[in-house]
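fyi for ur records
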Amino acid sequence: MPKDKYMWARTSGRSGKYKCKWIPYTQRIYDRLGEVVVSAMILSSCSHKGEVLLEPGDVVLLATAPRPYTSGYISYATYDEMDVTFVPPLEKGEKMGFGERVQEGFSQAMEKGLDFFFGLAIILGKIGEQFEQGASSFKFSPKMLHPSTLARLLKGFISAKINKRNLIPSDVWNLKGVMTGGMDTDIYRDRVAHYWGKQPLEGYACTEGGMVAMQSWNFKGMTLFPDCNFYELIPFEEYLKNKQDPDYQPKTLLLDEV
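which gave:
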C-alpha cells in the first residue's frame, strides 16, 4: 500500500470471481488525472500549433460517473487543476442519477453555454441521439425565457431549419473541444462529430492504470504517457510460451528496452 495520502477507485464491471476491483490512487496519480485532461482540453480545441482556446470559467457538461469510479475522480481532478465550471456542479451532480445529471446539465448549459464535453464515445453518441429525438417533441418551459437561452434556441432552430433536420447539439452550442474514449470509439467517432460539431480527441484510461495515452492535436494515433505508470511489457513470443504453459514465467522488458 502507498504510504502517502490515497483514495480508492473501483472498476465498473465484474473482475473474475469478484464483483469489482479496488485500486488505491495516490495524490500524485490524482494530480496527473487532472493534468492530462487539461492537456486534452487544449489539444482537442486547437487547430494549429501554439493555439490555446482553454480559458478559466469554461463550461463543461458533467457526463461522467460519480466517485469512486475513475471517471468521477477525473472530473474532480480536472476541477482542482483548472478553474472550469461543471454543469451541474460536481457535488450536486454526484448525487443524481445519470439521466437526471445530464438533463440538468443541458438545462444549465442553455443559459451558461457549453465549451467542453468528455465521456465514453457511446455515451456522447447516445446523448446526441436523445437530444435530436427530444427536439422533435419540443415543449416550452419558463426557463427558456432567459435571454441567453432564447438566443441559443433561436440560433439552433434556424440552423436546423436551414439543414432540413431536427435540432442537434451543435446547432445550439459551439463547443471548443470534445474528448472521448472507450473500446467502441471508432464506431461512434463520426456520430459524435456529427452531433457535437467537433472531431473527438481520443484517449485511453483504465481504473488500474489511470491515464495511459491520448491523441495529439492532429487526432492521429495515440501518444503514451511515460510518467503515469511503471510499464513492464511482455514480448509476444513470451506471451505465447505462457499461454502454452501457464506455469511459465514470461520475461518482461521495460520501456527503455523496447
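The mean pLDDT is 91. thats all i got for now
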